[in-house]
């Protein structure tokens, strides 16, 4: 099965104060780490960003068609450019996601529109799989001015993946880097 990887790297990084995608940990930028993480599972990688500096790794940069609407706009713009039915979305600041978990999520692909991890602290729509058939719902939400990913994933045919056992195995699995002290 062919899957497109979508890395969300276009956030404003207000709390961090600098472009998170270009921050380095373990000698590599967060963007570089994200690319390396999803590359084994994805035939193509699209980077949702309006920053030309993100082109340094040779993957296609997709600019937001609709600006200032957060991740929903980035995913929408990338889904429109994707050439595959299934698309794995990863927020660039999700540095603790394990390849084993991505592989597991891919095994859950079914006749649905989205595959989203869920756990006691909430839902994880930015570490998830989206089918291209959800594109119309993305467009509808954007036209309504509803930019909340939670509303979108609740409005499409979503398969919720209980991730409790994964968190037991990898306690930081869904933690992301938002502030300088998170580094």
Which helices and strands occur, and which strands form pairs?
Elements: E1 3-8, E2 24-25, E3 28-29, H1 30-38, E4 44-48, E5 60-62, H2 71-81, E6 86-91, H3 99-107, E7 114-119, E8 122-123, E9 127-131, H4 135-144, H5 149-155, E10 158-162, H6 164-169
Parallel strand pairs: 1-4, 1-6, 4-5, 7-10
Antiparallel strand pairs: 2-3, 6-9, 7-8, 7-9
Helix pairs in contact: 2-4
Give a brief description.
The chain is built from six helices and ten strands, in the order βββαββαβαβββααβα. It is of the alpha/beta class and 183 residues long. The protein is globular.
* Main β sheet profile: 8 strands, mixed
Overall structural class, as computed from helix and strand content, comes to alpha/beta
Q: What is the radius of gyration computed over CA atoms, rounded to a whole number of angstroms? A: 15 Å
Question: How many beta strands in the DSSP annotation?
Answer: 10
- Parts with pLDDT < 50 across at least 5 consecutive residues: 13-17
Task: Please tell me the overall pLDDT.
Answer: 90
CATH superfamily name? Answer: Spore Coat Polysaccharide Biosynthesis Protein SpsA, Chain A
What is the molecular shape? globular
What is the CATH first-level class name?
Answer: Alpha Beta
Percentage of residues in helical conformation: 25-40%
Strand content: 15-25%
Alpha-carbon distance between the termini? 35 Å
* N to C succession of SSEs: EEEHEEHEHEEEHHEH
CATH topology: Spore Coat Polysaccharide Biosynthesis Protein SpsA, Chain A
């Amino acid at each position: 099965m062919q899957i497109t990887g979508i890395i969300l790297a276009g956030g404003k990084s207000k709390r961090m104060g600098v472009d998170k995608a270009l921050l380095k940990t373990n000698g590599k930028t967060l963007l570089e780490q994200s690319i390396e993480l999803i590359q084994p599972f994805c035939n193509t990688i699209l980077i949702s960003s309006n920053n030309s500096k993100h082109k340094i790794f040779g993957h296609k940069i997709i600019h937001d068609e609709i600006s200032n609407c957060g991740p929903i706009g980035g995913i929408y713009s990338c889904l429109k450019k994707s050439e595959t039915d299934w698309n794995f979305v990863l927020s660039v600041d999700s540095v603790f996601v394990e390849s084993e978990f991505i592989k597991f999520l891919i095994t859950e692909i079914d006749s649905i529109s989205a595959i989203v991890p869920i756990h006691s602290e909430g839902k994880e729509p930015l570490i998830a799989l989206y089918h291209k058939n959800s594109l119309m719902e993305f467009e509808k939400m954007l036209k309504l001015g509803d930019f909340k990913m939670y509303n979108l994933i609740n409005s499409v045919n979503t398969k919720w993946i209980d991730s409790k056992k994964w968190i037991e195995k990898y306690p930081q699995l869904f933690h992301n880097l938002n502030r300088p002290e998170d580094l």
